[in-house]
Amino acid sequence: MSRAQGSRTVLRRELLTVLRTRAYLALGVGYAAVVVGAAWFSGGAESGYLPTASSLTTPTEILVPVVAFALGYRVVLTDRSTGELDVLRTYGLGRAEYVLSLYAGRLVALSVVLVAPLVVVGGLVWTQSGPTITVIAWHGGVDSPLLLARFGVLTVAFGAAVLSVAVAVSAVSGTVRTALALAVLVWVAVALGADLGVIAGVVTESLGDEAVVWLTSLSPNTAFRGLVLETVVGVASGGVRATSVPASVLSLVLWTVAPLVVAVRKVWK
Amino acid sequence: MNKTESAAVLEANDVSKTYGELEVLKDVSMEAERGRVYALIGPNGSGKTTFLKILAGLLPPDSGEVLRRTGGAERAVGYLPQQPSFRDGFTVAETLRFYTRLLDEKMGDGYVSEALGDVGLSDASNRRVSGLSGGMTRLLGVAQSRVGDPPIMAVDEPTSGLDPEMTGRIFETLSGVADNGTAVLLTTHDLDKVGRHADKVVLIYDRRIAGSGSPDELVNEHERESLASVFDSVVRGGGRG
């Protein structure tokens, strides 16, 4: 078996598994309904691409971790509990091939779930907003579908980081209950911990402005939020620096790579 | 290959394994030849599954060695876990095709049809795996473990929870696999079927091999009327028989 052959086969199965699992389909439809609904009822669709992206930032930040964790928190665990991991090893499949292919398959599915509603939203803005957009005016540029596309790219990058954490949780957990508890614990600690840390630092004045800008890159949530503010909404913010773009990009990359390394090391010995 | 052409394909020497403070196996040795069925029997918790996984290369022994002389086999060992379970949403044929593609993407539908026919699942090839009975799931597991014609097959309690008819079908299928030149190693509690189908029995008790040989040899050696009686005498007698 060539490595590419094994990887393609596992990736394909992961994609088909997601496609054929009703719970995942329901999750995708539910996510799409919330995103499209939020864009519609916030009035963003009538105002333009940028207001739409802005109105979707908070719902996305809350819902993407839910969707990504649902897709990944038990994927390795299930294969282990059914003996499938042992079976796959007898086919010469390596740890890295298995984990990365499985991750890639789930990431493709997650990307479709995250991007499809934004395409619908983009269509709504295009049909609803008309030629004159008057709600927001700024000197940095004109409203453009590219801003929503950029928001979509950042959403997928955010989802990729969370999915990676979910796969790692799945690889280190012994039971579904443990995986679920660990997933919640990790996310509450990472997301709330980073926000509360920054807020505490600002309130107690123990952090300077520069430190706050760097610390907002620490967690995937804050890095995503900062990047949206800086590269999507920021074109209208008049030069106020929300985060360090390189630090936030590096943070998302590390939050994607490091958990996968853990998963590869822990999936089997 | 028939049984007279057998050669040692697997050799375990002085294998020991400990989980934390619990010593499960101590200096256990055995050989396996192609074309034969080996039954690892013993009480629950005696280390059968651990030994099987060590023989299959899925667990490392703490000490000792396992030699597998599988030549250039594309897949050295086929493995069937104790409670095989396949991904929901896939048909029987799709499931088996997944495993064949892990070895060779060009392995076509002909191979899948033939493999399903060998285990008596031709009629179920388009059924969803979630709709299979426990016995049919095991048969699909047997088909999976044969993919690539591995010279060694490790099968963990293939008949637990199955009715007598399906149990017989599983044992007959595994005997057929051995007749085609595979060394079949299985763990089981079904001593009646072991007596009929196994070429060699390895009785594991108190971390060691408490007896081994053909079913008839064990019965004669222990001067008992059946394998079950041998098992009882060894276990109740603390391994002395």
Structure write-up:
The complex is a heterodimer of chains A (269) and B (241). With 269 residues, chain A is mainly alpha-helical. Chain A has twelve helices and no strands. Chain A has helices at 3-19, 22-41, 44-47, 49-72, 75-81, 84-89, 95-128, 145-172, 176-203, 209-215, 220-231, 245-266. In chain A, helix 2 (22-41) packs antiparallel against helix 4 (49-72) and helix 4 runs antiparallel to helix 11. The longest helix of chain A has 34 residues, at 95-128. Chain B is 35% helix and 25% strand. Chain B has helices at 48-56, 92-103, 109-118, 134-146, 164-179, 191-197, 215-221, 227-236, and strands at residues 8-19, 22-33, 37-41, 63-68, 77-80, 152-156, 183-187, 200-205, 208-213. A six-stranded mixed β-sheet of chain B has the order 5-6-7-3-8-9, with helices on both faces. With 241 residues, chain B is of the alpha/beta class. The longest helix of chain B has 16 residues, at 164-179. The interface between A and B is medium-sized, with 23 and 35 residues.
